[in-house]
Design a protein that fits this description.
By secondary structure, the chain is mainly α. It has 2 domains: 2-59; 70-303, MetI-like (MetI-like fold, Orthogonal Bundle), CATH 1.10.3720. It contains 12 helices and 2 strands, in the order H-H-E-E-H-H-H-H-H-H-H-H-H-H. A two-stranded antiparallel sheet has the order 1-2. Helix 3 runs antiparallel to helix 9 (215-230).
Length: 308
């Protein structure tokens, strides 16, 4: 009887093993499916943009596309992309002029000066900025920052590039701070202790030892933050206005690529028109901008990475 029971137990164990093997075969396929979703989504986005953007480029000559005249709803419409590119670049530069010094300084403090108890409190509070909806930032830029700046700069327009640029910089400070601090924390303490043992001050250690050692991570944080600024929509839509003039005057209204897309998707462009397809052309150019920024961040990270 005991011998029969042992045989039954062995059979049960073999059946359970076979079930587990079947599960093991299914699980990798599920993981592959999950990983493929993001790839398929990206391919779908690219194909959609490329297909409809081609219809725009087929109808509008390159000479007109790379001009400074943008009047898509005029009787004789023109589709110069340069005003949108300049508006996007200028507001992004202003944002980085705000985010880089403040974010990097905050990262140095959190990494090199702050006590652990202070760091646990300050870092989550700072990262709360990243959780505020961008439309709230937009109204903040338009209703608070712009009137404040108008007291300092009388020539500043009610819609301008300066105000949304500054607020975008405030919005991406947590990204610069968090990523830069992570890069600096990865530097071995032995390097800090060695520099201090040689008589360096804490500031000299931070500036001359830690920052150079964490260069790849810090620069990558800058590039990713620029990508975030380039793709920002609601802040510039609300506070920068919709002026399509090609200008470098940051006190005047400018329109970015994202704001142009928002404006036209509200119903101004009829389906199948050249103006409608211009949305996809602008979206494709914006996609290429952000893709190049991400590739640059990856290249810098690999090129200047320090291994300890």
């Amino acid at each position: 009887m005991n011998h029969t029971a042992d045989v039954k137990n062995v059979i049960k164990k073999n059946i359970e093993k076979n079930k587990n093997k079947k599960r093991e075969k299914i699980i990798p396929n599920l993981f592959l499916l999950a990983a493929s979703i993001s790839i398929l989504t990206t391919v779908g986005i690219v194909l959609t943009l490329a297909f409809d953007a081609y219809k725009f480029f087929a109808k509008v000559p390159l000479k007109e596309i790379f001009s400074t005249e943008l009047a898509p709803l005029a009787v004789n419409p023109s589709f110069g992309i340069l005003p949108l590119i300049s508006g996007t670049i200028i507001t992004s530069i202003i944002a980085m002029c705000v985010a880089i010094p403040i974010g990097l300084t905050a990262a140095i403090y959190l990494s090199e000066y702050a006590k652990e108890s202070h760091r646990k409190i300050l870092k989550p509070i700072m990262e709360l900025l990243a959780g505020i909806p961008t439309i709230v930032y937009g109204f903040f830029a338009y209703s608070f920052v712009t009137p404040l700046l108008m007291n300092l700069i009388p020539s500043l327009g009610a819609k301008n590039a300066l105000s949304p640029g500054i607020v975008m910089g405030i919005m991406i400070i947590p990204m610069v701070t968090s990523l830069s601090e992570d890069a600096m924390n990865s530097v071995p303490n032995a390097m800090r202790e060695g520099a201090l043992a040689l008589g360096s001050t804490k500031l000299e250690v931070a500036i001359k030892v830690v920052l150079p050692a964490a260069t790849s991570g810090i620069i990558s944080s800058f590039v990713l933050a620029i990508s975030r600024a380039i793709g920002e929509t609601m802040i510039v839509t609300i506070a920068s206005g919709s002026s399509k003039n090609f200008t470098l005057d940051i006190t005047q209204s400018m329109q970015t690529m994202t704001a142009y897309i928002v404006e036209f998707t509200s119903g101004d462009a009829g389906s199948g028109t050249v103006g409608y397809y211009s949305l996809y052309a602008v979206g494709l150019i914006l996609f290429i901008f952000t893709l190049l920024m991400n590739l640059l961040a990856q290249y810098i990270s690999r090129r200047y990475r320090e291994e300890y």
